[in-house]
Specification:
By secondary structure, the chain is an all-alpha fold. It is built from two helices and no strands. Helices cover 68% and strands 0% of the residues.
Amino acid sequence: MAEENTLGFEQAREQLTEVVRTLEAGGLSLEESLALWERGEKLAAICQQWLDGARARLVAATDQPNGEHPDGEA
């Protein structure tokens, strides 16, 4: 979905939480469950992209190539 490309981290996380709740509640057909699972996988990937981007920004801001704190702390 094109909408997924514009989701912020919080929106994707919220939607992913709802997907998990729905799957855990059960009562869906196999086809519905699979479709929801696939949506969850896409949302999880979006969240991971946001987290990876945030980490990269933090590393760049501290100018440390391996993500170490400037004082030598991890």
